[in-house]
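Sequence, please.
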């Protein structure tokens, strides 16, 4: 099993506070000979829907030496996980969980915004100190 991101527990607590039920920690999926671990799978019952909403969340802290390298790795991982979920659990929406300071300092840059839009990344912005989800970006 892969090592956990430094904010793994923080995001788990934030999902719980936001009313999500964590169903897998991590979500293990296999395709052929390859195994994958997405940080969380969660569900939330919505009054108007019988089956509720299902998500998968990959947590990223962006604490490496280079933001650009961390961003490239996160986008590639997100795209691969999205492909995997489309094959294995198509009803589950994938989100990339990022801390507020990274969102406000780096993810508002023009190139990064365009890359997020072009690749259709969904973001979950969280406050690491309060362990709360602040924004969901589709």
């Amino acid at each position: 099993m892969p090592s956990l991101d430094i904010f793994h527990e923080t995001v788990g607590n934030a999902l719980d506070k936001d009313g999500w039920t964590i169903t897998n920690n991590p979500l293990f999926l296999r395709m052929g000979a390859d195994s994958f671990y997405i940080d969380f799978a969660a569900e939330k019952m919505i009054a108007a829907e019988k089956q509720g909403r299902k998500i998968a969340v990959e947590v990223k802290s962006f604490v490496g030496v280079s933001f650009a390298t961390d961003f490239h790795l996160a986008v590639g991982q997100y795209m691969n996980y999205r492909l995997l979920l489309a094959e294995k659990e198509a009803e589950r929406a994938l989100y990339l969980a990022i801390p507020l300071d990274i969102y406000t300092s780096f993810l508002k840059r023009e190139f990064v915004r365009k890359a997020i839009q072009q690749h259709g990344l969904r973001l979950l912005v969280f406050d690491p100190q309060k362990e709360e989800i602040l924004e969901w970006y589709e």
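Residues 62 and 69 are 9 Å apart (CA to CA).
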